[in-house]
Write a structure and sequence with these properties.
InterPro entries: G_patch_dom (IPR000467), GPATCH11 (IPR039249). GO terms for molecular function: nucleic acid binding. The protein is an all-alpha fold and about 170 residues long. The chain has a domain of about 70 residues. It is about 55% helix and about 0% strand. The protein has six helices and no strands. The protein is elongated.
């Protein structure tokens, strides 16, 4: 067969179904994002660039020979060894940090957390108060009123007896 012959449309090449494209299973945003990344003139958003630069910087060790900074030279003069902590007993891994993604000020997250805990305590107290039955509360209040009335009567009796015997308070 030469190149000028038409393709045989009955061959297995045309009978097999092509594999489904993975782009159909992706959402519109994912397909758009993939298309943008393939575009050479596409500029990444600032947040993504910052994340990339941060990850690159955090992955790079600063105590290597190729990174010979004045600070590292001073540390080596004072006895610092690569892979050991300061004073040969300090931390060897960097302190973990959490990057703020929200627009709240510093400390507002803990403030919101405290307010939420206080509100939760109020709700729990209210639920406990409502948990006691209404009849029990009314019975307790009536009992307290009766005891106060009996106390007043007893005080009046004691006062009249004292005045009969000539005792003044």
């Amino acid at each position: 067969m030469s190149d000028s012959d038409p393709d045989d449309y009955m061959s297995s090449k045309f009978l097999t179904e092509p594999p489904p494209e993975p782009s159909h299973s992706l959402t519109y945003a994912e397909r758009r994002r993939r298309k943008q990344l393939l575009n050479k003139s596409y500029n990444k958003p600032r947040r993504e660039l910052e994340n990339d630069y941060r990850e690159q910087a955090l992955a790079k060790r600063i105590d290597t020979e190729e990174n010979e900074s004045p600070g590292l030279k001073l540390l080596k003069k004072m006895g610092y060894e690569q892979g050991k902590g300061l004073g040969n007993s300090g931390r060897t891994e960097p302190i973990k940090f959490e990057l703020k993604q929200d627009k709240l000020g510093l400390g507002m997250a803990t403030e919101i957390k405290h307010k939420a805990q206080a509100e939760l305590a109020k709700v729990a107290k209210r639920a406990k108060f409502e948990e006691d039955s209404f009849r029990e509360r009314v019975r307790q209040e009536n009992l307290e009123k009766r005891v106060e009335g009996q106390l007043r009567k007893l005080q009046n009796i004691c006062e009249t007896l004292d005045t009969k015997h000539g005792i003044e308070v």
